């Protein structure tokens, strides 16, 4: 049986998550307006899609907080911006990595209380955050594949 203390801890974590979803939505809208240059036309569309999805996440989390007996926050976490295209995308990517880390922790906490249905809602969200991170890594040209020489085995027979 879930202790009230554990549940309160999850609710306060979810309220933190909610404030970061609001922040992400605002940050994406602003960055989509501020990014400039022909190579960013596609990225701008991506960021606006992300903004829409962060809005959807905020609604899901707000409802989940209410379902668990908490009061959803109206606070907005820190937004970052820059006049530099690459810096803006780095800020967005860092926010996605942070969100993934928080949500994986939230899934653990919820499952520890056997709240598998609520954990599933967070799972659905974190999968989308992973897609956002992949989009941003690609937009930044981050190469994650290690050079062949780094592999402990030979690729040739
Ligand atoms: Fe999100
Ligand atoms: Fe995201």
TrEMBL record:
GO biological process: intracellular iron ion homeostasis
Ranges for domain Ferritin-like diiron: 4-147
MF terms in GO: ferric iron binding; ferroxidase activity; heme binding
Pfam family, one: Ferritin
InterPro entries: Ferritin-like, Ferritin-like_diiron, Ferritin-like_SF, Ferritin_DPS_dom
A GO CC annotation given for this chain: cytosol
Descriptive protein name: Ferritin Dps family protein
